[in-house]
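Subject: Predicted fold for HTH cro/C1-type domain-containing protein, 75 residues

User T.R. writes:
Posting the sequence so we have a shared reference for the thread.
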Amino acid sequence: MNPNVLEKYRIKKGLNCSQLCECMGKTAGWYSRIRSGRHPLRTEHISKMALIFGVRPEKLAKEYFSKEKLDDTSI
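User M.O. replies:
I've generated the structure tokens; pasting them so everyone works from the same file.
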């Protein structure tokens, strides 16, 4: 799992964490746990987050669940 993928898309979309959480209907604590990798992003949230980011759900899921790690420079 690659939580950095979520940060890459969030930043690219120009959203701060609070804005993303508001769009998702979730708390900052929820996103913090997802972002840190302590909790995985559930598949039912992939579609909504992909819509917010403007990417296909399949693309977001593939990148998020990939075993390859993103470099910090790709964010």
